[in-house]
Design goal:
This protein has five helices and 13 strands. The chain has 212 residues and is of the alpha+beta class. It has one domain: Electron Transport, Fmn-binding Protein, Chain A (Pnp Oxidase, Chain A, Roll), CATH 2.30.110.10. The strands form four sheets. The chain has a seven-stranded antiparallel sheet, covered by helices on one side. It has a two-stranded antiparallel ribbon with strand order 6-7. A two-stranded antiparallel sheet has the order 10-11. β8 and β9 form a beta hairpin. It is globular and about 60 Å long. The chain binds flavin mononucleotide (FMN). Flavin mononucleotide binds next to β2, β4 and α2.
Length: 212
């Protein structure tokens, strides 16, 4: 085994190790509005659902490289405390990738990537019409992760409204995995589809409830 002390890793080295080992990652395609109403859309794969009740989604925004200090998504979340997390599928993967391009804050990434803004029900940022599942969210809390190695900001978001396209809804509050065609992020330029499925059934409880 090769071992790495986290304290010795540069940002690049840590990114390469974590992003190619923690795979596949779902992708939050996050739409936000700036304080003056400008639309923003960007992907975040350090993302997951973190609680069922209350329904909670978490994604993390790293520090921007280059000339900018903060990413637009971070600035917009701090200003408005709202976002929509749109699920990325094979059909929208290329558009999602375009929205990861470093662009001036005033550029509308919906237009840049050729996707359609659709009015949300509860929050102000629009959703991506082409995404089959959209989570309208309010920022519950942001948590700054910062030490001498670097900085990231965790966005802990309360889900306030969930949209599911009829085409992927299996009824009974379930999504059909055969129809969703969601994509996952691997390390570097690699992505995966979710077409190769297998099933396992949970074993019955081995605790004798009468003995408890
Ligand atoms: C699939 C994918 C996943 C990404 N995941 C993250 C992430 O988890 N955290 C992050 O800070 N940046 C991530 N990025 C990079 C951002 O999308 C990129 O910095 C983007 O320009 C930020 O846009 P903004 O300034 O409009 O917020 C990811 C990019 C791609 C293509």
């Amino acid at each position: 085994m090769i071992g790495f002390a986290a304290g010795d890793l540069s940002k690049d080295e840590s990114y390469k190790l974590l992003s190619s080992a923690i795979v596949p990652r779902p992708i939050a395609w996050v739409s936000t509005l700036s304080a003056d109403g400008g639309r923003n859309l960007a992907p975040f794969s350090f993302f997951n659902g973190m609680a069922v009740m209350p329904p909670t989604i978490v994604f993390s925004v790293g520090y921007a490289d280059g000339n900018r200090l903060e990413k637009d998504t971070y600035n917009n979340m701090m200003a408005t405390r709202e976002c929509v997390v749109n699920i990325v599928t094979e059909a929208t993967a290329e558009a999602m990738n375009k929205t990861a391009t470093e662009l001036p804050a005033e550029i509308d990434e919906f237009a840049f990537a050729g996707v359609t803004p659709l009015a949300s029900v509860v929050v102000s940022p629009p959703r991506v019409q082409e995404s089959p599942i959209q989570f309208e969210c309010k920022l519950h809390q942001s948590v700054r992760l910062e030490n001498e190695l670097g900085r990231s900001d965790l966005m802990i978001c309360s889900v306030v409204y969930i949209h599911v396209d009829d085409a992927v809804y299996a009824g009974d509050y379930k999504i059909d995995p055969q129809k969703l065609h969601v994509v996952g992020r691997l390390g570097g330029p690699h992505y995966t589809t979710t077409r190769d499925l297998f099933q396992m059934t949970r074993l019955p409880s081995q605790v004798n409830k009468q003995e408890k």
